[in-house]
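Action item from last meeting closed. Structure (370 res):
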């Protein structure tokens, strides 16, 4: 039907426009954060775009329902503002038609959000965890800048380089201080480079033409050794590598049938994402009603408020379920039931107002005609 395609085209265009804006805001904030970490040497620069891509997959499942919700309000708000809804009503096409057609479109987006929430987001979280471990193994030396001191091995070592070549690996005029079992070693070298050892998840510093000063602090028995080549292995920090598995990284198949209350709460939250979109679609249709004086964007602020209250209630109910404050059979479902009741009540009120105008309006119309 031409009218259905017309409405779908406007909604889908608005979804992609809103989603692009929301992603740009989120990714720009993350990009600045990653740049800050890279400048401090906590994150190797080559990992920045990998993290951004994975973060985009994770956040899409959250931003897409919001973009779809706002897109319906903006599209229908424009139709109300241009009196196109009034023309449709005069032709016998009313609110039930809009709710039915837009809910069908919501079903398509719900499948997409469900795929993101149940499969792609956990996979992206797993890849992000793997990258975080790899980044932690190299961040002790990665990000070194000329004329700056850099700690490694949990503060047991200090690294300083006067000049770093453009390739980011070759260094000149190097100073390294290491504390091992009460003994202090100081290395001074003219040139060196650092290499990433993927197999052992560590970094190797290779220095040439230098001296090593080794001894016990407070005593004068220091040994001075000259060398042509010397290597130091920088091990990753254990607390960064041995993190507990995040719930977001658990495969959805491992959550099914698991009696652990935390796993059950996580599964319900993943299933809530597509259900959330299906419930927001008819709510947006009912909230979109406005007269030309209100403007096409009159309900946007209210819609954003409703969305964030809905989302926060879901997160709170997940925590309550994990802590045993809410029975497992209720879980997070009561929040969806609450929104469903709101949709039914709004639908009834809209139907009542359309069928039976208020007496004051009816009297005004009668008086004007008579």
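Sequence:
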């Amino acid at each position: 039907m031409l009218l259905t395609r017309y409405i779908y085209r406007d909604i889908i265009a608005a979804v992609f426009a809103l989603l692009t804006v929301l992603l740009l805001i989120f990714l720009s904030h993350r990009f600045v954060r990653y740049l800050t970490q890279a400048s401090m040497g906590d994150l190797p620069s080559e990992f920045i775009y990998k993290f951004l891509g994975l973060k985009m997959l994770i956040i899409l499942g959250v931003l897409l329902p919001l973009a779809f919700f706002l897109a319906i309000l903006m599209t229908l708000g424009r139709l109300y503002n241009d009196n196109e809804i009034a023309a449709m009503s005069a032709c016998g096409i009313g609110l039930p038609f809009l709710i039915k057609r837009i809910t069908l479109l919501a079903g398509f987006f719900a499948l997409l959000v469900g795929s993101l929430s149940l499969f792609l987001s956990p996979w992206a979280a797993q890849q992000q965890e793997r990258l975080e471990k790899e980044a932690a193994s190299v961040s002790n030396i990665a990000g070194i800048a000329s004329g700056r001191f850099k700690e490694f091995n949990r503060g047991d070592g200090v690294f300083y380089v006067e000049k770093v070549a453009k390739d980011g690996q070759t260094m000149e005029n190097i100073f390294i201080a290491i504390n091992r079992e009460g003994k202090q070693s100081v290395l001074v070298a003219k040139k060196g480079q650092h290499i990433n050892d993927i197999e052992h998840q560590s970094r190797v510093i290779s220095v040439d033409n230098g001296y090593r000063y080794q001894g016990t602090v407070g005593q004068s028995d220091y040994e001075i050794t000259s060398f042509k080549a010397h290597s130091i292995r920088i091990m990753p920090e254990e607390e960064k590598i041995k993190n507990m598995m995040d719930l977001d990284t658990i495969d959805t198949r491992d959550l099914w049938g698991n009696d652990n209350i935390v796993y059950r709460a996580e599964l319900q939250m993943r299933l809530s994402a597509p259900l959330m979109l299906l419930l927001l679609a008819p709510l947006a249709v009912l909230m979109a009603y406005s007269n030309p004086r209100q403007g096409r964007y009159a309900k946007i602020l209210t819609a954003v408020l409703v969305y964030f209250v809905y989302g926060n209630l879901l997160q709170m109910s997940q925590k309550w379920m994990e802590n045993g404050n809410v029975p497992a059979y209720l879980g997070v479902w009561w929040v969806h039931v609450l929104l469903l009741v709101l949709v039914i009540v709004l639908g009834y009120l809209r139907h009542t107002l359309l069928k039976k105008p208020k007496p004051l309006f009816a009297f005004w119309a009668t008086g004007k005609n008579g």
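Note appended to the action item: The chain has a mean pLDDT of 82.
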